[in-house]
Amino acid sequence: MARRTVYKGWRPGEEGSEGVVPEAAIIDGRTIAAELRKRVADAAAGLRAVHGLIPGLATILVGDDPASHSYVRAKHAACVAAGLATFDRRLPATASATDLIAEIARLNADQRVDGILVQLPLPAQIDAHRVIAEIDPDKDVDGFHPVNVGRLWSGLPGMVPCTPQGCMMLLRSVRRDLAGAEAVVVGRSSIVGRPLAALLLAADCTVTLAHSKTRHAAEIARRADILIAAVGRPRLIGAEWIKSGAIVVDVGITPMIGADGRRQMVGDVDFAAARSIAAAITPVPGGVGPMTIACLLRNTLGAACRRRGIADPLAL
Ligand code: GUN
């Protein structure tokens, strides 16, 4: 469906021009993630043939949270499909930080392990910051260790968190050059909002990080050429948050029961409303979600190469 509108794009010459803006394009995360997974699998086959190297990912899962179990299962399945080795460590919900740190120390010392991922959230008795700081930064495939956070904000090479890395790939699938764009990130989590703000800044965007205490958040969001929703509040972002012609990336995935009584994943963006305003939008499911695991595979392969001084075939 085409709409006549004043298109306030951020590319040169688009400012305030009048034109026909079609319904937003859907950014297909499943296809883009599948392509990256294939590239990782091909690169892994090459490393095995040439160097006898099989990159290995270790996950540590603490407790019984069903969602965390299903995420970890999916990560292992993706590793196996790409030809990476996996190591599955489980601790009971009653485990202490000391137990978890002892497991991390074993994996840090294990030469078969290139990447270590502690599945979050952790039980309340364990301070996530304390345990993440114990992971060898060169094996920190989540990019959550303070050394990697510092590298990211300093513009230095390091491990880049998976979901934000995936968001950047999706953005770049529709706009190669993001320089000069107004980017608004709604949500300041350590896993998504903060690192994504750093990546957008590194891509020469003008970045605003909005959060639960931000006043006039919808008004601020309406300035955005690139709008990222990462708050975990189903359909919070409605039409009044979105500028005509914006690119909208929806990181939210909240499980809800639909009108048909079935469980479904709901994003932070009111998709139907956004689709008639934005230029491009990620769906939920099938947008950002598949990118997280694909980027985890890429980080694990990259870590395996760096640790051995081998050129990373998938270097950014
Ligand atoms: N829980 C939700 N997302 C993530 C993630 O990207 N990494 C880890 N380790 N835990 C998570």
Produce a short descriptive summary.
Among the domains are: 54-139, Leucine Dehydrogenase, chain A, domain 1 (Rossmann fold), CATH 3.40.50.10860; 161-290, NAD(P)-binding Rossmann-like Domain (Rossmann fold), CATH 3.40.50.720. It is 38% helix and 19% strand. The chain contains ten helices and 13 strands.
Give the tags.
316 residues; alpha/beta; Rossmann fold; 3-stranded parallel beta sheet; 10 helices; 13 strands; 38% helix; binds guanine
Describe what you observe in this structure.
- The two termini are 36 Å apart.
- Strand 11 and strand 12 form a beta hairpin.
- Mean pLDDT is 94; it is low at 4-8.
- The strands form four sheets. The chain has a six-stranded parallel β-sheet.
- Helices cover 38% and strands 19% of the residues.
- The protein is an alpha/beta fold and 316 residues long.
- The relative contact order is 0.16.
List the helices and strands and how they pair.
Blueprint: E1 2-7, E2 17-22, E3 25-26, H1 29-51, E4 56-62, H2 66-82, E5 85-91, H3 97-109, E6 115-118, H4 128-132, H5 146-154, H6 162-174, E7 182-186, H7 193-202, E8 206-210, H8 217-221, E9 226-229, E10 247-250, E11 254-257, E12 263-266, H9 271-275, E13 280-281, H10 289-308
Parallel strand pairs: 3-13, 4-5, 4-6, 7-8, 7-9, 9-10, 10-13
Antiparallel strand pairs: 1-2, 11-12
Bound molecules: guanine.
